[in-house]
Amino acid sequence: MTVKIKEIAQKLNITPRAIRLYEAKGLIRPVKDKQNQYRMFSEKDAWRLQTIAALREIGVPLDNIRGMLERIDSGDKDEVGHYLDMQRSLLFAQWVELKQMIGTIDSMMERIRQQDSLDVSDMYALADGAKRLRGARTGWSDRWGFDRLAETYDAELDGSFGGMTGVSPEDRAQGIGGYEGCYEAALNRIGELVEPQQGETGLDIGTGTGNLAAKLAAAGAAMVGVDQSREMLKRCAAKVPGIETKIGNFLALPCFDQQFDFVVSSFAYHHLTDEQKPLALEEMNRVLKPGGRLCIADWMADDEAQRSELLAILRTNGCAPGVQLAAEEFYALRPEMLAWLKRNCYTVAEDAAIYASRLRVILAVKA
Question: Where does the HTH merR-type domain lie (predicted)?
């Protein structure tokens, strides 16, 4: 059974103009009546138009819909799912950006209310600050190539990941040289501190192949793992099918406000620049329920001198790969993190070293 464009437009609540546009873009190919050249739409065309309309409703650009339709036609479920996940992540990033813009407007309005006369320089300063924050938030990129590392990531963690040549045993005992001996201990300590309960929901940021999320899920929590690497998430989903995986990063978590009982992260926070770190903490705070637990394990320093010391030791030992890696990472300043937690009404329940003074775990409880 076939129908004309006006009938199918009414049936699907799509304008004839939109249908003609989709045809012009090659997304649909209705047959034409041989006698009068009217477009005639079949049930398959109706299904395709519904699919296009659904994708447009969630903001997918027309230029990308063709490729998605081809994958749908070929039954490539994984690729379609990945694209929808990417679109979801993009919408959350836009949502976070809009919230920041609204906050800037509110600040401008408050300044105007407080002043006898309009001071444009104040408005400019607020706008300039918002611009810098937007630059920090959108400046995230994977400089480490985690998609490439995914295949061998777990094998390297078994012992060789931290084995940087040229690093002395003494330095390694202080946490210089990588994860050797510390990785598993850090994950276990997070589990002990967070104490996930049956029925709780947790978020693991920078989940990688899901090692930490798997431990917490085994204790009974429903876990969501967020990572910017598609290949890492593939490994995670294959290894621990019960974990819900989402594309995203610290700066725009693809999650709703106050969604989680606890938020954790291990060995990922140091990938953020100093300017990005407070933005990441704000995002973690946004998705954490009141009374929720925030737990981070990572390499940290007490001051700039200690951060510089790490690079100096690596250079002294001739560890070029380590220098290159460390130069692209930004070890957290512990006092700054603790100060942020205090300002935002968190109670720090644990702040301790794991083996090495530079590897620490911090547990804080939200008010």
Answer: 1-71
